[in-house]
Amino acid sequence: MSVSSVVLLELKAIDLSFGSSQVLKQLSLEVREGEIYSLIGPNGAGKSSVINIINGIYQPQSGQIIFAGQVLHNYKAKHAPYLGIARTFQNLALFKQMSVLDNVLTGRVLKSRHSLLGALLSLPSTQKNDDLQRFKAEEILKLLNLQEYRDQLVSSLSYGLQKRVELARALAAEPQFLLLDEPMAGMNHAEKRSIAKFIQKINQQLNITIFMIEHDLAVVMDISDHIVVLDYGKKIAEGTPQQIQEHPEVLSAYLGIQAL
Ligand SMILES: Nc1ncnc2c1ncn2[C@@H]1O[C@H](COP(=O)(O)OP(=O)(O)OP(=O)(O)O)[C@@H](O)[C@H]1O
């Protein structure tokens, strides 16, 4: 997807505290439509807290969240799917004793016009709706090369495949903005490369803006359009991968690496 000049998400002067500990300090950021936008920084910098704010799980003490031109007031996690915001979690959150297809179908709840009465009466419209949901879920499985696992229990799959199923389930909601919390955590090199390709495919083919936290800097540098570096809840740098790689403060003081 080409990056547009339209800002899809804006955080303005966000402050977040838990008790006496201030986690985010006057944090502002802008994510443009079509971007793969990555947030990096040391452990405890506040990255997951940012995702939890964008997803409505945490409510900041002050600041504004503006999504698609709308200031969000009293914003909670239950509102996110209606805005077209979906997410994956740092630790897998799947129904492990259900099949891959059924897990993806759970992601279609909002898109389904299924009524309980219709189901009880086996109305033709209910059957049509089920067929549509299944068709959409199958399309996503195809996109992520998961068809061959469709009927397998999630618990029987490798960790890398389970992460891909989680991605599929998030996509089932047809989001316009996808939050990925460490999508490559715990993966081997080949699995990381493969998930990176799928993230690019989702961005380009489905026109979904991606907001990602990831510790693997090589992958972040490889696929991101824009990177923000957070430390102690403050933005210390932002720019293209090249600008970030050349930022001496980021490299030496905060990420503790010499060169990428
Ligand atoms: N619900 C909470 N209650 C209390 N403190 C919290 C809560 N959520 C986050 N914190 C604190 O906020 C700080 C930032 O945590 P956060 O998980 O956002 O950092 P992070 O950059 O995502 O770290 P990591 O890379 O290790 O996942 C930490 O000190 C953490 O303990």
TrEMBL record:
One of its GO terms (molecular function) is ATP binding. InterPro entries: AAA+_ATPase, ABC_AA/LPS_Transport, ABC_transporter-like_ATP-bd, BCA_ABC_TP_C, P-loop_NTPase. It comes from the Bacteria. It holds the Pfam family ABC_tran. Residues 9-257 form the ABC transporter domain. Keywords: ATP-binding, Nucleotide-binding, Transport. This is ABC transporter ATP-binding protein. It comes from Acinetobacter oleivorans. The lineage of its organism: Bacteria, Pseudomonadati, Pseudomonadota, Gammaproteobacteria, Moraxellales.
